[in-house]
Amino acid sequence: MAPHPHQADIHRTIDAVWRMESARGIAGLVHIVRDVGLAEELAQDALVAALEKWPEDGVPDNPGAWLMTTARNRAIDRLRHLKLREEKHLQVAWELEQMQEEAARRHEQLLDDAVGDDVLRLMFIACHPVLPQESRVALTLRLLGGLETGEIARAFLANEATVAQRIVRAKRTLAEAGVPFEIPRREELPERLAAVLGVIYLVFNEGYAATAGDDWIRPALCEEAMRLGRVLAGLMPEEPEVHGLVALMELQASRLHARTTPDGRPVLLMDQDRSRWDRLLIGRGLAALERAERLADPPGPYTLQAAIAACHARALTAAETDWARIVALYDALLRCLPSPVVALNRAVAVSMAAGPEAALPLVDALLDEPKLSSYHPLPSVRGDLLFRLGRLHEARAEFERAAGLTANARERELLVARAARCLEMAAAAG
After folding, report:
1. Cα torsion angle, 125, 127, 133, 135, sign
2. Are 133 and 177 in contact (CB under 8 A)?
3. Which residues lie across from 213 on neighbouring strands?
4. Tally of structural domains, the chain
5. Closest CA relative to residue 288, chosen from 312, 309, 317, 274
6. Is 131 within a domain?
7. Element (H, E) at 213
8. Which helix (H) or strand (E) holds 408?
9. CB neighbour list of residue 169: distance below 8 Å, 6 or more residues apart
């Protein structure tokens, strides 16, 4: 046993261990009891036991194994004492005892491999298509991120009771649907993997550019998404889009420190101090991108977006950005992922490569797109193009419209300031 630190230090240690080990523990328990809700409950029981015992006995040498063993013992006790009539529950209890005995005999590396497989299965369960998207996100952060319900609610500016209900309903839905604890069959894998990647990237994006609230970025969410992405890359090393997503997140996260001023105001990409970009994250992102491109033929949407991010990462100054290559990459992205949002981003790249006059017709063609009717970047981009063309009154109207559509306070301040700047310049020009 480790020496007895202060009780507050013990609690911080328990919290850190839970964040690192809860997914492995819950995944191992789901493999045994075949019920996500029961598995999480048993893991929570083990956590309560740690909070009771570790301050007195000290932190175990292998805290993750202690939690897993305790949870397995609780599972055995639970199944023994519940008055369940179905024979299969008795069989599960017997299997638990056998597994516990076998665990002591198995090599540690083999155990790690088995748990890794279980974590992968848990990812596919949490992101199962039978669940709505918001439930997939909440359940993923709960089961795989070790976040408490209140933390998830605060991260997404949602009501805690609403998030709690989503998690409860998600676990009930999975149980009622009889979702198997397995990796999808080969023919199902692309769709199911896309759902997992989509959830991870949604979490990242909410951290990178918060849709609502007072903060423009929430780095903790980016960190959690990158951690999940790295775990998935380790579990599925031959899947190019997994590495493509990891590369995309690493490259975008490299800019986080430069994306805001010290008081939290947004700093746009072309105005950022690139010396503040994280070169370690850029190196890791470029390595992941190289691996994705080596495995992919042709490259998928995450790999293409990572390649676009790499163009920015490789440019030491904004003026050195290879906008022609970015336009070509957006062309490829539009072919494999037709989307008005991608088309709008391509128009921005065209404006940088060929000027605002070349891009404005492309943006205008998107004005009647229903999916962009409440999408504030559309008037924001159009306002920027009009500003660069000297059409200041029109630009001001677009910035004001964008400010009215965004729910993020920091971004609204930026857009209002740009509208005011248009007014000042127009007045100065007479």
Report:
1. positive
2. no
3. 408
4. 1
5. 309
6. no
7. strand 212-213
8. strand 407-408
9. 135
- Identify whether the C-beta of residue 278 lies closer than 8 Å to the C-beta of residue 310: no
Within 10 angstroms of residue 401's Cβ, the number of other Cβ atoms is 17
From CA 308, how far away is CA 326, in angstroms rounded?
6
Contact 205, 65 (CB under 8 A): no
- CATH (domain of 416): 1.25.40
Can you spell out the DSSP letters for 351-407?
HHHH-HHHHHHHHHTTTT-GGGTT-THHHHHHHHHHHHTT-HHHHHHHHHHHHHH-E
Q: Which tens digit of pLDDT belongs to each residue from 365-421? A: 999 999 999 999 999 999 999 999 999 999 999 999 999 999 889 999 999 999 999
Tell me the mean pLDDT in the region 202-208: 89
In a domain, 381, yes or no: yes
Query: How is the chain split among helix, strand and coil, in percent rounded to 5?
Result: 75, 0, 25
Q: Count how many residues are written for the chain.
A: 430
CA distance between the termini of the chain: 78
| Domain range enclosing 370 | 357-430
Closest-CA residue to 100 (of 68, 147, 131): 68
Cβ-contact 29, 75 below 8 angstroms: yes
pTM above 0.90, yes or no: no
Is the separation of the CB atoms in 235 and 119 below 8 Å?
A: yes
Torsion angle of the four alpha carbons 370, 375, 377, 383, in this order, in degrees rounded to the nearest 10: 70
Cα–Cα distance between 140 and 120 in angstroms, integer? 12
379 domain residue, yes or no: yes
Query: What is the separation of C-alpha 370 from the centre of its chain, rounded to a whole number of angstroms?
Result: 27
281 in a structural domain: no
